[in-house]
Amino acid sequence: MMEQTEALQLAVAFLASSQGEYEPPLAIDTEQVRQSKGLLIVPYNSVQYLASRDDREQLLDCWPILVDLERGHVRFGILGERHLWKNPST
Q: Which stretches of 19-78 are DSSP H helices?
């Protein structure tokens, strides 16, 4: 099983590699990272929002990054998995 620190590093690298040239700078919301059903759920948002927590700066519909703690597979969450981050359990 992968450690949370290592999984978080994978999520940071994944976010950086997936960032588009014209998107606002994005960062991991470390305050909201949690585990559920063998996944590390890693939300992210704009750097500006994370610095201020001002809802006017928040990006809408940022599906979190999911890291499979058993296999180390990293991907964005999908709509059918929304229950994992809306109603997390261990």
A: 47-52
